[in-house]
Amino acid sequence: MSDVTDLSSSLPGDQDQFLTILSREEVLARFEDALFPRSLPVDTVPLADALSLALATDVMAPIDVPPFDRSNVDGFAVRSDDLAQAGEGAPVRLALNNETIACGTAPKQIVQPGTATPIATGGPIPRGADAVVMVEHTQPLANDAIEVRRAVSPGQFISYAGSDIARGEVLMHKGTVIGSREIGMLAACGIARVNVVRRPVVAVISTGDELEQPGTPLRPAAVYDTNGPIVTAAIAENGGNPIFMGSYPDEEDVLEQGMRAALARADMLVLSGGTSKGAGDLSHRIIPRLGAPGIIAHGVALKPGKPLCLAVCDGKPVVILPGFPTSAMFTFHDIIVPVLRRLAGLPLRTDTTVEATVPVRIASELGRTEFVMVSLVEGADGELIAYPTGKGSGAITSFAQADGFLRIEALADQMPAGTKTDVTLLTPHVRVPDLVIVGSHCTGLDVVTAPVVREGLSVRSISVGSLGGLAAARRGECDLAPIHLFADKTDTYNTSFLAPGLTLVPGYRRMQGIVFRPGDARFEGKTPEAAVAAALADASCLMVNRNQGAGTRILIDRLLGDARPDGYWNQPRSHNAVAAAVAQGRADWGVTIAPVANAAELGFLPLTEEHYDFALVDARAKRPGVKAFLASLHSDETRKALEKAGFRPA
Ligand SMILES: Nc1nc2c(c(=O)[nH]1)N[C@H]1C(S)=C(S)[C@@H](COP(=O)(O)OP(=O)(O)OC[C@H]3O[C@@H](n4cnc5c(N)ncnc54)[C@H](O)[C@@H]3O)O[C@H]1N2
Ligand code: MOO
């Protein structure tokens, strides 16, 4: 991170200056200044195709709606004068005219004094009539007549022509976004085609030799293209017409051809990846050849999103999003969406914010405005608590599972625990979960929560490790904290770690053991002790360890005694990472739990059972989510499912 940090001096067109970091506001302003004002292309489209588009011109009402005075009820069209004296004791007899006005029937006869004409709801009011009596307020008489025993006021049950929409008035203003209700108004006026702002066509290209499209098998060292599908969907969500052009290798010629082809058919081009300092980072080198003015900002004092690159080539915006998916999504929403929506003629999204407390200290990089993705849960007194979803910019779930984000200013190096701050919601419909589980994550947990979710309750599981979970439970921020903490002194699991106000609910046992690739003679068929001895005797045998504080680490240290074989300092933080290291041949052995070993198809030498239990926050035990969770945990169905997945219910 040795980029030039210059918040002021870089000028538009200064594209040789690689990664001159500008403030977020400066970057937004430069981008908008380079693109707007501009006239937006207009299309005339059938009503059915106008949904979600912005009107390009005002629409005037060509007719009155309703087009004629219309009855609102089934009954009789009358002259109110005739009934002025009518009452319970003073019935008035009206002779029926010889026509019935159904919907769509133009009346022929005049309603003369002393007469009435049967009329249906929606029928046009005949000449002479000025009110309608409901059929249930009349009594049929012989010889085509009715009796009425109540007075009516003039205009009763009539909708007058133009009372809904008046001919010549502005029905809808330019810029209105067309939804189903607008389509209804236009249809009522007989309008079949409207002028709309044409959806900007946005080409999407992912770059990187390592990318594979979903649906194809994953080569070694490859990852699935995540940004391509995300950006494509986000463009459609924000009024664009995306064309996904696939992923391109890090080859300058091929990529340049792809970018030129994209710009030939699109109004805008969004690339992702290859915008920082790697050898394969070349799209920004191609941009200057694609049209003036070229790059207008490359590098923004924003986290995530520092290497964002913005360009305009012959009037078309060209954007390179950072490769890390959370960085790509965040910068797209923060900086690209406002521009895309302006190009589509759509109003800016309005952000909803809520106040929440951060339960833990959040470190931040000085000099960059940092946006931290958070998950919202309810605290002990009903206040909102914002947990960082924090797996970093490279993780997809950081953004996808967040409810919103908070902002740490560029001049702060942290946000202290307990800070009350605004959280901008990613969707305005955030619902505080019915069940909050904070602690160590385990695949078995999904088995237990499945029936709870089926009941329609929302479950939020935040993975912060056993100790983090206990701290959250003590603060009353979760319902349950899943823990598997081994106390060396007492040789017990979990019980000795509880604080007042917490009760231990026994969960299930997970068999831990040594994993190795099947067929490895150093391990196959041996006792764990003999296998470790064989591993230690072979200097080329590489282990993978676990992080300090993990229950598994205590086991490993016991197995090793004073030995520190190669690989000891490789200390990943999860059971799955250990299995992956062994399965991929980056290590030869490690210790993990049986379900994970089985899923990775590794050899397994059982060691001992780990207790995975739940610290229940007593004050929250009566919540429906907690009750449903406990019912599931103790049900036969869940116990069987746990066993099937390789766990042993307590
Ligand atoms: N020496 C430095 N290294 C990095 C810096 C830096 O300043 N100096 N900045 C870091 C920051 S911040 C970010 S953000 C990333 C972004 O880098 P790039 O935009 O060049 O992205 P890549 O290197 O191509 O990829 C990064 C990462 O993301 C994965 N990736 C890329 N595209 C996709 C995709 N379409 N779908 C899923 N994943 C994708 C890629 O495989 C890499 O793992 O750079 C830091 N490095
Ligand atoms: O800017 Mo990078 O996006 O911090 O991860």
Automatic annotation (TrEMBL):
GO terms for molecular function: metal ion binding; molybdopterin molybdotransferase activity. Belongs to the MoeA family. Residues 203-342 form the MoaB/Mog domain. Pfam families: MoCF_biosynth, MoeA_C, MoeA_N, PBP_like. Transmembrane segments: none annotated. Pathway: Cofactor biosynthesis; molybdopterin biosynthesis. Catalyzes the insertion of molybdate into adenylated molybdopterin with the concomitant release of AMP. This is Molybdopterin molybdenumtransferase. The lineage of its organism: Bacteria, Pseudomonadati, Pseudomonadota, Alphaproteobacteria, Hyphomicrobiales. GO terms for cellular component: cytoplasm. GO terms for biological process: Mo-molybdopterin cofactor biosynthetic process.
